[in-house]
What does this fold into?
Amino acid sequence: MFGDRASRLVLIGIKLDKGKLTGSLDECLLTETGMAEDWSKLIDNFPGSH
It folds into this structure.
């Protein structure tokens, strides 16, 4: 929607396993199936904020 915006996550540490971290984060991504679900059933924890 807005091509000029980006988010970045920086992890700094000793002996970080890049593959394991990337895999774990990838599992958190929203899938097409998740996007198609009925989001109206979810509780809005921040009412009035949008």
Observations:
- The CA atoms of residues 22 and 37 lie 25 Å apart.
- The longest helix spans residues 18-26.
